[in-house]
Design a protein that fits this description.
This protein has helices spanning about 5-30, 30-55, 65-80, 80-90, 95-100, 105-125, 130-150, 155, 170-190, 195-205, 205-210, 215-240, 250-265, 270-285, 305-320, 335-350; strands at about 165, 245, 295, 300. It is mainly alpha-helical. The chain has a domain at about 30-250.
Length: about 350
């Protein structure tokens, strides 16, 4: 059996095993555990969207919370029933043209991603003329502008009250299906000629431009694609928790996604997947740090935010001692697993012969 066919069989078995695990978890785990599992899938989508910019294109952006907000609000408004909209907009009536619109969830999800991509294009045109820290500050400013606009557009977004009673379409199969599509899309994109181009731009813009690459166009395209998937992630988040408001989409949300990318490894799809699962689980496992504690010689009345302090320390430790993250720029592959197992076997044999 040749290696290519062997890898295809392994991948098929791995996919079936993942589907079986998801089915068992969805059937036997409690609602809270399933919620954390599904949140991990949404963070995978968001981490991949940010990694496309930070890791593969070399653009330092802090505006993803804004694109998530656009996606969440667009999808929610397009899927809510007229009665639900009337209940939410009790202070200021909703704009008439949006009152009776109700679309199927898949259509609304795609339109949410498209709306976020459009906003990303509008932001990319001026912002991507900047570089490094200036670009990060500009994208952060644009994200805050989006949040403020959502807060003040009372007749369109219901302002600071947010939206409640959003249909719960983000089931286990939907969110993990979207995560799988995001991984597949990014793998195919990076293996294409455009993927090689964005890596060339990341490594050396001057050399890429000298070879005839339109660097600005490549950056804008990458930014728009990243914004699209951020909008998808925001829409899934809204349909999972069934309520959204502008305070959800602050810098802290972008920080969580950035933590996943840095921890997993800039420029690693596998790292983003593992990092999303690890960070999401740890965020809930460490929640006790924000609550009152009585540990023998340590007693507190509750320190809200201590959990994020721990995550900040983890982030600093990774930056100082493991700058490439858990995976660096490496990816999971069956030949890589074979090499690792062969190396491990040789080490065990050499130890046993001593």
């Amino acid at each position: 059996m040749n290696m290519k066919r062997k890898n295809i069989i392994r991948s098929a078995i791995g996919l079936l095993a993942l589907l079986l695990v998801l089915a068992l978890c969805n059937a036997f785990l409690g609602p809270f555990a399933v919620r954390i599992m599904n949140l991990s899938a949404i963070y995978i989508v968001l981490a991949l969207s940010l990694n496309l910019l930070n890791g593969f294109t070399g653009l330092f952006s802090l505006g993803h919370a804004g694109f998530m907000a656009v996606g969440a609000y667009v999808s929610a408004l397009l899927t809510m029933t007229p009665a639900q909209k009337t209940m939410n907009y009790f202070l200021t009536p909703i704009v008439p043209w949006l009152q009776n619109i109700q679309l199927p969830f898949p259509v609304a999800l795609l339109l949410a991603g498209a709306a976020a991509a459009f906003v990303g294009f509008l932001i990319a045109a001026p912002a991507l003329r900047l570089r490094d820290d200036y670009l990060a500050i500009a994208t952060l400013g644009f994200a805050e502008i989006i949040r403020v606009l959502i807060t003040n557009a009372q007749a369109l977004t219901n302002g600071a009250q947010g939206l409640k009673g959003i249909p719960k379409f983000a089931t286990t199969w939907v969110v993990w299906g979207c995560a799988a599509l995001a991984v597949l899309f990014l793998v195919m994109l990076l293996r294409s000629s455009f993927g090689r181009t964005i890596k060339a731009v990341r490594d050396d813009e001057i050399a890429a431009e000298a070879m005839g690459v339109n660097v600005f166009r490549v950056k804008v395209t990458s930014f728009v694609i990243s914004s699209f998937w951020a909008g998808i992630g925001g829409a899934l988040l809204g349909h999972m928790i069934t309520t959204i408001d502008p305070k959800m989409f602050t810098l802290m949300l972008t920080f969580n996604i950035l933590l996943i990318v840095v921890l997993g490894g800039n420029g690693s799809i596998t790292g983003s997947v593992f990092g999303a699962i690890i960070v999401t689980v740890l965020m809930e496992a460490l929640r006790f740090l924000d609550m009152p504690m009585n540990l023998f010689f340590i007693k507190t009345n509750g320190l809200p935010g201590l959990r994020m302090v721990i995550f900040s320390i983890i982030l600093m430790a990774v930056v100082l001692y493991r700058q490439r993250g858990l995976m660096g720029s490496k990816e999971f592959s069956w030949p890589g697993i074979d090499r690792f197992l062969g190396l491990l076997k040789r080490k065990l044999v050499s130890k046993g012969g001593r």
